[in-house]
Amino acid sequence: MTDEYFMQLALKQAEQAFEEDEIPIGAVVVQQHKVIARGYNMTEKLNDPTAHAEMIALTSAFGHLGAKYLPDATLYVTVEPCVMCAGALYWSKLSRVVWGASDPKNGFSRVQPGISPFHPKTAVTTGVLEAECAALMKAFFMNKR
């Protein structure tokens, strides 16, 4: 089980969002090499600007474990988290955060370049299946124009 394997699962979530005309971002939460939660953007479906893939996956993981912290879990998300999601990830105390494509327009790093918003014990890995993650976003927005 590699980062690429789990990012492929997050991409499947992003494809589900794409099919539902949502911004195609997907996420999975993994603990002990098992997916314990999944999520994709549902802001249009739920009429909720906070219904990002990361938030949906985190809420599902908390419910699955009956806990408010995820110190032994990794979140895989297809696109760099926004400021709101980065805050939720901080409070989740995840072991790792892994994302595919950077988001210079809406990602957290545009607000605080070079500063990690995550918990000090959270490891960060970026660029996993970056081309595939970015291609899905580009295809979505090309269809909108």
TrEMBL record:
Q: What is annotated as the active site?
A: E54 (proton donor)
Annotated Zn(2+) binding lies at H52, C82, C85
* A GO term for molecular function: zinc ion binding
Q: Give all residue intervals belonging to the CMP/dCMP-type deaminase domain.
A: 1-111
Kindly indicate whether the keyword tRNA processing belongs to this entry.
yes
Q: Which UniProt keywords apply?
A: Hydrolase, Metal-binding, tRNA processing, Zinc
Q: Name one GO biological process term.
A: tRNA wobble adenosine to inosine editing
The record's section on InterPro entries has: APOBEC/CMP_deaminase_Zn-bd, CMP_dCMP_dom, Cytidine_deaminase-like, tRNA_aden_deaminase
Identify which cofactors the protein needs according to its UniProt entry. Zn(2+)
EC code: 3.5.4.33
Top-level EC class, please?
hydrolase
- Record's signal peptide: none
Is Hydrolase set as a keyword in this record?
yes
Q: Subunit composition? A: Homodimer.
Record's function text: Catalyzes the deamination of adenosine to inosine at the wobble position 34 of tRNA(Arg2).
What PANTHER family does the annotation carry? CYTOSINE DEAMINASE FAMILY MEMBER, TRNA-SPECIFIC ADENOSINE DEAMINASE
Q: Which family does it belong to?
A: Belongs to the cytidine and deoxycytidylate deaminase family. ADAT2 subfamily.
Q: What is this protein called?
A: tRNA-specific adenosine deaminase
The organism named in the record is Niabella ginsenosidivorans
